[in-house]
Amino acid sequence: MSTATNTDWQTRPAPATAQEWIARAAEVAAVLATDAAARDHAGATPYAEVQLLKDAGLVTLLGPTGHGGGGQDWTTAYRVVREIAKADGSIGQLLGYHYLWFWAARLVGTREQWEHVEAQASRERWFFGGAVNPRDKDVVVTEDGDDLVYTGRKSFSTGSKVSDVTVLEGVLEGTDQHVFAIVPSDSEGLTFHDDWDNIGQRLTESGGVSLDGVRTPWSSAAGYVDKVFKPRVYNTLNVPTIQLVFVNFYLGIAGGALETAATYTREKSRSWLHGGFERAVDEPYVIDTYGDLTAKLWAAEALADAVAAEGQKLHDDPDAVTEKTRGDFEVRVAAVKARATDVALEVSNRIFEVTGARSTATSEGLDRFWRNVRTHTLHDPVAYKRREVGRWVLEGELPEPTWYS
After folding, report:
1. Alpha-carbon gap, residue 335 to 373, rounded angstroms
2. GO terms for molecular function, please (predicted)?
3. pTM score over 0.90
4. Do residues 248 and 391 share a domain?
5. What percentage of the chain exceeds 90 in pLDDT?
6. Which domain holds residue 307?
7. DSSP code per residue over 22-51
8. Is 98 found in the same domain as 202?
């Protein structure tokens, strides 16, 4: 991967507006796109790719400007994730998860905690990973004086191997209280495993992690004051927030698939010998397919942007978030998650209809778009997202806040 652009970013003024940040993300995506297929095939740990995100300033997008951050909101973050995912779905996922974990202190922690975390993370350009897979319930947190000690295993820890800090989650021994804390990724007892070997999202470093007595001060337990958690409805906004991250890197992958396929069709596809056209781009079936897929993608993107704007209103006034406003927002997120899943799977599959048999060559790498979408859309069943919407329509039922809703 070429890093020639990085020096230029270091000497240019930082973007100041949302559009400038999205344009910066497009520049980063152009660098990632140059060898995306080869990197996907190699499956190497993406240290250089994460450094690229740091050099471009994207990792501090949500941070306070007074400490070197971009001072942007979630509507911009989602668009940035979408741009990066057009070139590389894995790196789009890593960046999106990073934004969620960067924001986690604000979602769960006290004001003192999140102000400290965001300032330091922005100054030092931390990259966040997370060992918070909710289906693994075997991480136990015990007390040892003024310390908490995490012991157990998580089967997924997206980004942690390439991160500076990792968000841990476990249950305080003898209670049902979950405890989140941020620890350095090189903490003693924290071991990341090279066991992520899936068909898609190969560069996300989403393998397992072992926690063998990882220690952190009680004062780092997010949202706890004098060892007592202070709950807010806003705490539960982590799920719809990360689900919108999913939506946007799905749509980014779909957009990248369409752009890459269109280039192939223009430059390499041969017209069908019995179709009566000299160029593939003149074939009515090809034109219709690109028009159909583009219209569906644009519609899903418009819905995603609208829902992101609705969510930003909740982020802007956390203390005003109620169970109803949170629930109504989750329903909207569920709806766009269902749409984005269907559209991204359709786009990444049907591009082969308009690129032709030769486009399936491994060297072209067009299969990576479908593999990436198919892999991550299995994160949680989309049928349950449609159920949330259906129950809301028929009964006015709000989704119960869980790890997935």
Report:
1. 17
2. 3-methylbutanoyl-CoA dehydrogenase activity; flavin adenine dinucleotide binding; monooxygenase activity
3. yes
4. yes
5. 91
6. 233-395
7. HHHHHHHHHHHHTTHHHHHHH----HHHHH
8. no
